[in-house]
Write a structure and sequence with these properties.
heterodimer; A: 417 residues; alpha/beta; FAD/NAD(P)-binding domain; D-Amino Acid Oxidase, Chain A, domain 2; 2 domains; 8-stranded mixed sheet; globular; disordered C terminus; B: alpha/beta; 5-stranded parallel sheet; 3-stranded parallel sheet; 10 strands; FAD-dep_OxRdtase (chain A); transmembrane helix (chain A); glycine oxidase activity (chain A); glycine oxidase (chain A); Gly_oxidase_ThiO (chain A)
Chain lengths: 417, 263
Amino acid sequence: MNERVVNRTVDVAVIGGGIIGLGIAWAVAHSGRTVVVIDPDPAGGATYAAAGMLAAVSELHYQEEVLLELMLASSALYPAFIESLGPEHHLTGYQRTHTMTVGADSADRQALADLRGVQLANGLAVDPLTIRAARVLEPLLSPHVSGAFMVEQDHQVDPRRLAERIQLALATLAKSRRWGHDALIRVNAMGLLHDDSADASSRVTGVALADGGTVSAAEVVVANGLAAAMLNGLPERLTMPLRPVYGDILRLRVPAHLRPLLTCTLRGLVHGVPVYLVPRSDGTVVIGATQREDGSTAVSAGGVYQLLRDAQVLLPAVRELELIEVTARARPGTPDNAPLLGRVSRTGRETPGSDIPGLIIATGFFRHGVLLTPVAAHYCLQLIEGSADQRWERFRPHRFSATRPSASVSLQGVVSS
Amino acid sequence: METEPLTITDSLVIDGVQLNSRLIMGTGGAPSLEGLGAALHASGTELTTVAMRRHSVTTAGSLFDLLVDRSIRVLPNTAGCFTAREAVLTAQLAREALETDWIKLEVIADEHTLLPDAVELLDATEQLVARGFKVFAYTNDDPVLALRLEHLGAVAVMPLGAPIGTGLGILNPHNIELIVSRAGVPVVLDAGIGTASDAALAMELGCDAVLLATAVTRAQNPALMGEAFKHAVIAGRLASQAGRIPKRELALASSTMNGRPDL
C-alpha cells in the first residue's frame, strides 16, 4: 500500500470545494464540529466563473416561485453568513449595492414590466425609473434604452474572494482548535463508504479517496456539482439528473478616467437576450453570461461577441474597457432549475424515518450557487443537528428518482380557476 | 348522420412518417427542461426541432433524453448557420449523431432579422438533397422561392409568417395561400406565430402543419400555451376542411321566414 495513504476521522466530510461545499463546511466548522473538504481544485469550477450577483428579485423567472422562497431566505442569511467569517469579512467583496434592470427596446421594457407584475404579486419591490432618473444614477447608461427599474434588494459578492476567505477561515479554525489535520484534502473523491459495503442504501460512514486513503465521517455531504452523479456507492434508487449548462463570462478593467463605470449592478434585456454588468470595488467589471448546452468546455467566440455586443448597447463605454479575462465553466443544471438538497430516502419514497443515515446531498444549484450558499449551509447544518426547516423538503434530491410520473400539468385547474 | 371525427383519420404524412399532431414544436427559449417537457406534453406534438449547434447529443440528461423519454421524434435544424457550407456541415453532424436524414434547413441572412438568405438556401437544399437528406426548407413567404425549393427536392416547405421570435403572426396571408395552392409537398407555417389564433389562421389558409417555439417557450405559462396551440391547430384544420361560408356585405338570417305561419 502507498505509504502516503492517510485515513482520517472527522465529524463531517464534504465532497466538493465549490462555493456550496465550502459554505457548508464553514457552517459545520463554525458549529464546533470537525470537517474536511475533499476537492483537487477547490473553487475552480462554476465558482471561479460566477459573477456573484445576489439577485433573488431580478433572477425571478415565471413559474419559479418555489425557488424564489429559497433565494429570499438565502439573501436574508447573507449578512450573518459573511460576518461569521471574522473581522476581515469585508474582503469577500460583499456589497449591499442595488441592481438596475433595463430594457433595450420597447418589447424588452414590456417583458420587464410583465415580470414586474409577478414580482409585485410576490411582495417584492421593483421600482420603475424614468430614463432620465436612471441616467442621473448611472450617467454612462445609454440614452437609447427604453425602460429602467430599480431593485434595491439585489446585492453582490465576489465569489473568488468569498471562497478564499472561507478556506482561510477553515484553515485558521483547524489550527486553533487543533484538529490535527488540514481542513482541505486536495484529491478526488471516488465514492461513498457504507456500513454494509454490499448495500448502497445502508448508513454512509465515509469517503473513499482517489489516492487510496479514506475519510471516516459521521455525516458525508455530497456537494461536488456535476460530478456528484458519478460517485461510487450512491443509493441505487437515487438518480440525479444533472447536466452541464455552460456559460461564458468576461472580466474587464475600467480605465481610470471612466471610473466609476457603474455604481450598481446593471442587468438588461437586449432584443430579448439577457446580459449583466457587475462592477467590482477594485475597478473591474464582470460581464456575463451565456447559457450553452452545446457540450463545449471552451470559451465560445460567439458567446464573447454576444456579451460585448449586448453590453455596449446598454453602456456604450464598454468599448473603452480592457478585456482581461474570458472564462467558460459549466453550471450544474437540473430539470426544474432547483437544487438537489437534503437527505435521501432509502426506499425512494417519502416514508418517515426512511432516510439513509450519514448522507446529505447538496448539488444542482445551477445559476444560483453563490446566492444559495448561506441557505444551503444553514439547512445542511440543521439536517446534521436533526431540526431542519420543512419548507426545503421540496428540494429533496430524489424527487426525480421515483418512477417517472406523468408530466402532464393539471391544466383543468388552471383553466377553471 | 354520424361521421368519424376528422382528426382521427386526418394525420399528416411526411417522407412516409405519419404524424397525428399537426403541431411541430421548437425547443429554444424554454426556461427549464421540466417546463419544456410539460409544454411539449400539453401541446400534443409528435415532432420537435432542435438546434444542433446549441445542444450536445452526447450529454446525459439533456434535451435529447427528454425527447426520447417522451417518444417525440427529433427534427434537427441548422439554426445559427449563415452560409450553405455551415448548413451542410451541421446537417452532416446531425445525421451522424441522430441517425436521421431529416434536416430542417435554416440559412439565416443576418442576426437582426433572422430572415432566410434565399440564395444560400437554394444552394444548401441542392447540396443536401444530393447527399440524400430529407430537407425541410425554412423559407421566406415567397411563392416563387417555395416552388423552387420543392423542385429542388425539399420534402416540405416551411414559409415564415413573420420573422423568428417576433410574434407578429401571419403578415402576408395571401402569399401563404398562394404557396399552399401550388405546393405538391406539405407546407408548414414556420416562425412569427404569437398566439393561438395565428396558428388557427395558418391551418385555415391550408397549411399542413404549424411550427412554433417562442410563442410557447417564452409564454408566462408555457404548458397552458402549449395546450392552447394544440386546440388551435386542430380547430384551424377542421375549419379548413369544413368549407367556410362566403363573406357577405349584408346580413343573411340564419333561419329564413319561408314556411312560418303569418299571424
